[in-house]
Design a protein that fits this description.
Length: 1111
């Protein structure tokens, strides 16, 4: 066995051995035959945008600890690996690279050409990520590695889309979304960041008017009937506060406060708080938009913040506090809110609360989009009543803001500005400020009870904050309700709150990289009589005809008086059978043209026929999270395990869904965990059975939901730098796991990360620049490397002992035999510590307490095994066959327990340890390796309760306390380690001597404390310097310290001890003389205080006596 462990030599060799033996390949047949319990983890698939960072290293280390431990425990363990295509993130990275290298934009290529470039980039980083995971020691089932856009996963995406669309849970509609005007696509919340910018509140005056009747729809402001100005004099007569401070004949106005003047072009109403005293005076009046001329109603809504002068607070209306210190919106508010539903989420919500009132009393719909996809001002996307505002067309939103402010100022309508520091969303890819944008998008109706409510029903009852509503489409007898737990439990509230307040999920993205939306559309006109003309405009209708009878979804939507849109979502032919799909074209009653039957033998043929019939596939792709939400299904072969990778997929879904645990970070509880739960429960539940049409009543489609995708969700801490900042390239504070593996080894990194994995929200890792390499590192990894070296050195020392012959030649050879329970205290204690160690480690793993797992193993190896056991048996192990058996079993148990967190060094030690034969210790079961003689498939240590020895632990703890006290004296006086000193236990210390000299502990104290002699005689006056110390109330002495004890030093030490004891006694006496303490403190606590006082008084008397002798 080499004298030093070199990770750079051992790790590649061991990785090759694992690759060749394939010990991590799971066999679902063993589960289905009842031969093994399943244990399954789905890896959170890393994005193929870049190499893995330290957060990935933490997440995958923790997963690997669980996978390896349960594999050793006998579970049939599947750790499913894979990567995510990460739509917008990957496309943005490739677009940037192509521009840097070729000075070309995406649209300089065909869609197919550019996707080929992304595919090449994906292949490059997928390999990098896979290699990184293997270098980290991840024990994934590499033969089953998946990618979210491979054929198998793509089939699952199309099937899920089809079922959800068929069941009315996917729809297309115009909604407000997060819009990236640089990339020109909708983005998810997780694809945005927040930054603070310096901006201002602009105070803009909107004139008040009378209107003779309701505004005429589709008619310009100039053509409206009887539009007359409202004067301040009239407002004064109406009782409007402060109206008399203005000229009576001047037109009155209301003043809105906004940070986005450019969006005023899309205002649909003016909002006021119903508690605003000015509201009554404005009853029946209207507001007219300057330049545009649009007539706006005044509506009341609790969302509107009252100004501070009227008693408004941020809390009064549920508004959030401002970012700027303690100021609130009330300090900026005027009480008049410009309601711009097409460019602000809060206004959008207010519009739908007051839609009837706003639409009834306006010149058109309140959803007025005034921007193009690049966020420039445009009249091509829903804005028609331009009036005199044409001067803003074509301007960017930033330039339009300046222009609007200038125009209002020129007309005397800009009341003022007030500086303001605002938090805004930006795209995490383009860094453009996100625009709330009204766009035609595809949505999943997650607000449906079959989705959101079923997700909350999955929580174990003790983690729910409120009972579930009755009914709601969940069906009766949902067997998997209450079967999912969060660890730590506090994150269940995040999960539950999300579903209580969920919005429908926008799943379409205006990108090229991703799963293309599997819907084909065409528009057509109808001339003459047709049943289709009876359909209301804007309503999607399911067509029952040849298409739908063939398994396709066929819908039509009336766009205008004579224009219609057909949508077809075909179910794809199954590859695992001879089933072929008949797709007639089209439905005669809606589009009178030819109709014929087409037999689709393949997807390509089906899609080609659709295109020949004039259908065009939707150009958008699905949100990355759609395919990610199917990860626990698609990776196991759903919906048709035989269609792709049939042999590998056989039995996977039945054996490993639900999985055992998901390990992830808190920021994707809502974005990923939630959606996996909803999809898994719906698509595997009875509620997803065949149905007739999307128009069917949801109550008729109800059925018991399916299983949860995982029984446990562990949310790990987020690693920050030493100052509590997020690690990032821009800050230069990130640590590359590859650098740590190169400098310290994978095991050192893994053990350090496990030690850091507390159940707190964040953990800090001090980051320093390595002066030699110039790379970022952390001193914390040094501790991990030291631990691995300690394990190696202790194992090498123990193996050296185990390989040499016994001194008693008569018993040194012969076959292994069963050894009865040992007699020696230290052996009994070590076996008892092993029993406790196994129990503590198993409890820590069961509760996902990885820091406790690592600390328990650290103490077991370093403290118990190295510092005490190995040191204690040195004088006797060469002549005791039984003690050698204990040594071997202790080392092997510790190596096995450590394998999940330090797989490489333990596998390297195992190569030597597995050949050692010793007597069998009754009560210790160490199973053999099941594959290739590798430790990773060896059994988990089983220590019988009979080896728990409380008496031995108590006795040894007393000895350890005595030895520690002696060592402290030696350290204080710099006594050389090799110098033998004398222990004096005079007077009534017989109990101490009986422990030291007990037959089963003989020699332990002298060996471990460096004693040359133990006596019951007091040190003689002429016997040289000596030192007193107390142990269990007895005064003991150490002598023969040579010149180590200096009288003045000892005197100073004793004087300080006396002073400290007197302070302690004064404090405790004061506490016991305090009437309040004595009357209120529990009796047990008062008794403890009295005991502490008596002990301190005894120690003070002994210290004073010794001080007198020294002086």
């Amino acid at each position: 066995m080499p004298s030093a462990y070199k990770p750079s030599d051992a790790e590649p060799r061991i990785t090759r051995a694992w690759d060749e033996a394939k010990p991590f390949h799971a066999d679902p047949a063993r589960v289905l035959r009842g031969e093994a319990e399943p244990y399954c983890i789905f890896i959170p698939p890393p994005n193929v945008t870049a190499a893995l960072h330290l957060g990935h290293a933490l997440n995958n280390t923790l997963q690997d600890i669980l996978a390896r431990a349960h594999r050793m425990m006998g579970f049939e363990t599947l750790w499913m690996p894979g990567t995510d295509h990460a739509g917008i993130a990957t496309q943005a990275v490739v677009e940037k690279r192509v521009w840097q290298e070729e000075k070309k934009r995406r649209h300089d290529f065909t869609r197919e050409e550019f996707i080929a470039k992304i595919q090449a980039f994906k292949d490059e980083y997928e390999k990098t990520i896979t290699d990184q995971l293997k270098v980290m020691g991840c024990s994934c089932d590499w033969d089953r590695q998946r990618f979210t856009m491979d054929e198998q996963c793509a089939a699952a995406v199309r099937e899920a889309f089809f079922r959800l669309f068929r069941d009315g849970l996917i729809y297309r509609g115009k909604r407000l979304v997060n819009w990236d005007p640089e990339l020109k696509t909708a983005v998810a919340d997780d694809e945005t960041d927040e930054i603070e910018i310096e901006t201002a509140f602009y105070y803009m005056r909107y004139p008040l008017v009378h209107l003779g009747g309701t505004p005429l729809r589709g008619v310009s402001a100039a053509e409206q009937r009887d539009v007359r100005p409202v004067t301040w004099g009239e407002l004064a007569r109406r009782g409007y506060a402060e109206a008399d401070q203005h000229p009576a004949d001047q037109q009155a106005w209301v003043t809105v406060a906004t940070t986005r003047p450019e969006t005023y072009l899309g205002d649909a109403a003016i909002g006021m708080n119903p508690h605003d005293p000015r509201l009554k005076a404005l009853d029946g009046l209207w507001v007219q938009l300057p330049l545009v001329g649009r007539i706006l109603p005044i509506v009341a809504d609790e969302y509107v913040v009252l100004p501070k002068a009227l008693g408004g607070t941020a809390l009064q209306s549920g508004a959030e506090p401002l970012d700027k210190g303690q100021e609130t919106k009330a300090e900026y508010a005027t009480g008049f809110l410009k309601v711009t539903p097409a460019h602000d989420q809060n206004d959008y919500d207010l519009y739908f609360r007051r839609k009837e009132q706003i639409d009834r009393n306006s010149t058109g719909t309140g959803l007025i989009s005034v921007m193009a996809p690049d966020a420039s001002i445009s009249d091509k996307h829903g804005w028609t009543d331009i009036g005199d505002a044409g001067v803003f067309l074509g301007l960017s939103r930033e330039d339009a803001r300046k222009k609007v402010v200038a125009e209002f100022k020129a007309r005397g309508l800009l009341e003022g500005t007030k500086p303001y520091r605002q938090t805004v969303k930006i795209s995490d890819r383009s860094k453009a400020i996100i625009e709330p944008y009204l766009s035609d998008q595809w949505f999943v109706k997650v607000t449906d009870p079959r989705m959101a409510q079923t997700a909350n029903a999955a929580l174990v009852p003790e983690q729910r904050s409120h009972p579930l509503p009755e009914g709601g489409g969940r069906g009766e007898g949902a067997a998997f309700d209450g079967s999912m737990s969060f660890h730590p439990a506090r994150y269940a509230k995040t999960f539950e709150h999300w579903h209580d307040n969920i919005r429908d999920w926008c799943i379409s993205r205006q990108l090229w990289w991703g799963h293309r939306i599997p819907v084909w559309m065409r528009e057509y006109s109808i001339i003459g009589a047709s049943p289709a003309l009876a359909l209301p405009i804007g309503i999607v209708h399911s067509i029952e005809g040849d298409w739908s009878l063939s398994g396709c979804i066929h819908l039509t939507e009336r766009l205008s008086e004579d224009r219609f849109r057909e949508m077809v979502c075909p179910i794809t032919p199954a590859r695992s059978s001879e089933r072929r799909l008949t797709c007639p074209f089209p439905v005669i009653q809606f589009n009178p043209s030819r109709s014929h039957a087409f037999i689709a033998k393949s997807e390509a043929a089906l899609f080609a026929e659709l295109e020949r019939e004039g259908f065009v596939q939707d150009p958008d792709v699905l949100d990355t999270w759609f395919s990610s939400a199917l990860w626990p299904l698609s990776t196991l072969g759903w919906p048709d395990p035989a269609a792709y990778n049939a042999e590998s997929n056989k039995g996977l879904l039945e054996a490993f869904n639900p999985s055992s645990v998901l390990c992830t970070a808190r920021e994707i509880i809502t974005l990923w965990v939630s959606r996996m739960v909803m999809f898994n429960r719906y698509l595997l539940g009875d509620g997803a059975s065949q149905r007739e049409s999307p128009n069917q009543d949801p109550a008729l489609r109800a059925g018991p939901p399916g299983p949860v995708p995982f029984k446990n969700v562990f949310i790990h801490a987020v690693i920050q730098d030493g100052d509590g900042r997020k690690m990032s390239k821009s800050l230069g504070n990130g640590v590359d796991p590859r650098d740590i593996i190169e400098s310290h080894g994978a095991d050192a990194m893994r053990f350090t990360l496990a030690q850091m994995a507390t159940n707190t929200q964040d953990v800090r890792l001090p980051v320093l620049k390595d002066p030699k390499s110039g790379k970022n590192t952390s001193p914390k990894f040094d501790a991990g490397r030291n631990f691995c070296n300690k394990l190696w050195n202790a194992s090498r020392f123990a193996l050296t002992i185990l390989r040499r012959p016994l001194r008693d030649s008569a018993t040194s050879t012969g076959p292994a035999r069963s050894a009865g329970p040992p007699d020696a205290l230290i052996d009994r204690w070590m076996l008892s510590r092993l029993h406790a160690g196994v129990k503590d480690v198993e409890a820590a793993l069961a509760n996902y307490e990885f820091a406790n797992y690592a600390q328990n193993l650290y103490d077991l190896l370093w403290r118990d095994f190295c510092d005490w056991y190995i040191e204690g048996i040195k004088p006797t192990v060469d002549s005791s066959r039984r003690q050698r058996a204990v040594l071997a079993h202790a080392l092997e148990t510790i190596v096995r327990l450590l394998h999940p967190v330090t797989p490489f060094v333990t596998e390297a030690i195992w190569e030597h340890l597995r050949h050692i034969e010793t007597d069998v210790i009754e009560g210790i079961d160490l199973g053999a390796s099941r594959k290739g003689g590798l430790l990773c498939t060896a059994g988990w240590p089983k220590i019988a309760d009979s080896l728990r020895d409380d008496a031995a632990e108590r006795e040894f703890e007393r000895l350890r306390s005595l030895i520690t006290s002696i060592r402290e004296v030696r350290s204080q006086h710099n006594v050389h380690d090799r110098r033998k000193i004398t222990l004096h236990a005079p007077g009534n210390s017989a109990a101490v001597l009986s422990i030291i000299n007990a037959p089963n502990a003989s020699g332990l104290v002298p060996t471990l404390a460096g004693l040359g002699a133990v006596t019951d005689a007091a040190p003689s006056a002429g016997g040289g310097a000596h030192v007193a110390f107390r142990f269990e109330g007895h005064e003991l002495y150490l002598s023969n310290l040579a010149d180590a004890v200096d009288a003045s030093t000892e005197k100073a030490r004793l004087e300080k001890l006396v002073a400290d004891l007197r302070k302690t006694i004064a404090t405790l006496s004061g506490r016991l003389s305090n009437a309040g303490y004595m009357s209120k403190a529990p009796a047990k606590l008062v008794e403890e205080t009295r005991s502490q006082l008596e002990k301190a008084q005894d120690e003070l008397r002994a210290a004073l006596e010794h001080l007198e002798r020294v002086t």
